[in-house]
Amino acid sequence: MASASLQFFAFILALFGVFGDIAATLLPNWKVNADVGSNIITAITQMQGLWMDCTWYSTGMFSCTLKYSILSLPVYIQAARTTMVLSCILSAFGICITTVGMKCTKLGGDTDSKNHACFAGGVCFILAGIFGLVPTCWYTREIISNFLDHTIPESSKHEPGGAVYTGFISAGFLLIAGVIFCSSCFKRQQGAWIYPPKQHHFPSTEQESNAGYNLKDYV
């Protein structure tokens, strides 16, 4: 019962991780630059994401521009696009597989099949967390290195936006959920290896009858 509750808790964490992963992939505020200038009325907030760049004015106007060209983008943005999409796909697969493998569901067949499905879902979550953690770390490193570079003007420097923090938290949720699912299945299999089921050997009736026949011959 405790293992089933722990798996359900891991499943909730994985759901938060999946939704956060998708939101971080689509949000345009991976890096933010606030240019107030001399007049607060004409303040501009520039946001750059993986798929679009947006500008928000203090007057309430909001405009976005899609990044159509792929080859013109920096390498870290191209890598972030690929890995974040892979993270979303793997986490979605993990949700489907662990739904079958959890103990609180009636899907998946016998206990061994459910354990294997649960372990496979945990591996998907761990891979999704790694794929989500790599681009956020790389993207944050590029932002910090550009911010500390004195040759870059102040107007071109940015700070990490909300999408980066969302990606970090989502990757952590997915990693924790994957470790919980894999460890719960591993403990069960390890117990089966340490304490194998006892096999009872019963003599066959044919041997008993043959033994009785031979005794009668010698009497």
Automatic annotation (TrEMBL):
It is found in: Cell junction, Tight junction; Cell membrane. One of its GO terms (cellular component) is plasma membrane. The chain crosses the membrane at residues 84-105, 117-141, 161-182. InterPro entries: Claudin (IPR006187), Claudin_CS (IPR017974), PMP22/EMP/MP20/Claudin (IPR004031). Residues 1-24 form the signal peptide. It is a multi-pass membrane protein. The keyword Oxidoreductase does not apply. It holds the Pfam family PMP22_Claudin. Coiled coil: none annotated. One of its GO terms (molecular function) is structural molecule activity. Keywords: Cell junction, Cell membrane, Membrane, Signal, Tight junction, Transmembrane, Transmembrane helix. Belongs to the claudin family. Claudins function as major constituents of the tight junction complexes that regulate the permeability of epithelia. This is Claudin. It comes from Edolisoma coerulescens.
